[in-house]
Design goal:
Blueprint (H helix, E strand, L loop, with lengths): L1 H4 L5 E3 L5 H4 L2 H7 L4 E5 H7 L26 E3 L4 E2 L2 E5 L8 E5 L4 E3 L4 E2 L5 E2 L17 H12 L5 E3 L6 E2 L2 H14 L7
Parallel strand pairs: 1-2, 2-3, 7-10
Antiparallel strand pairs: 4-5, 5-6, 6-7, 8-9, 10-11
């Protein structure tokens, strides 16, 4: 696309450090010398090979992470601005998962906080059809809380890592959050 627009790619922005968003990071970064590489500060440790949990973090065994040779040049905090994007901490799928709200049109890049392959589901919700979003989510209750937090931004479009984007997603997000809370009642009203 950069050839079509005639603009350089200046940033590589990651939602989390699982193998699927990270597998091509080293090759991509090699093609884009000087591009900023950004991910949450918490998740950046996984790229460096540190798979330890912080004090107070709890969830399922960590699965699906991979180390990268590429060095992170910007470690994001909740609320950081990256161009037109607002960084939003949305842990649960992974300990340091981030989503990004496009301030120009209120589109939400939710990464793996939701999937749309078999209807809209919040990370951590189990259903009997493949893929099983619950299997790769680290903390289902935290995922449900993050889904509710993301819904609070009233996105105009929901863009996910697995499945198609949804326009006007609020009603579908409400149903997905209700299903997550039903499966994980410890979340309570969020």
């Amino acid at each position: 696309m950069s050839q079509t627009l005639g603009l350089p790619i200046e940033r590589i922005l990651l939602t989390h450090a699982h193998f699927d968003p990270v597998a091509s990071l080293d090759a991509l970064a090699a093609q884009l010398p000087g591009a900023e590489v950004a991910i949450s500060a918490r998740e950046s440790r996984f790229l460096e090979g540190d798979f330890s949990l912080d004090s107070g973090e709890h969830g399922r065994r960590l699965l699906g992470f991979m180390r990268a040779k590429t060095k992170v040049t910007r470690k994001l905090q909740d609320g950081d601005q990256i161009g037109l994007l607002l960084a939003i901490s949305s842990p649960g799928h992974t300990p340091g998962h981030f989503s990004y709200l496009d301030r120009s049109d209120n589109s939400l890049i939710a990464g793996d906080s939701f999937t749309t392959q078999n209807g809209l589901l919040a990370a951590g919700v189990f259903q009997w059809t493949f893929p099983f979003p619950a299997l790769f989510s680290w903390n289902a209750e935290l995922s449900a809380r993050s889904a509710a937090k993301l819904r609070g931004w009233k996105p105009s479009r929901l863009c996910v890592g697995h499945g198609k984007s949804l326009a006007s997603p609020e009603a579908a997000m409400d149903r997905a959050i209700a299903a997550a809370i039903q499966q994980h009642p410890g979340v309570g009203a969020t």
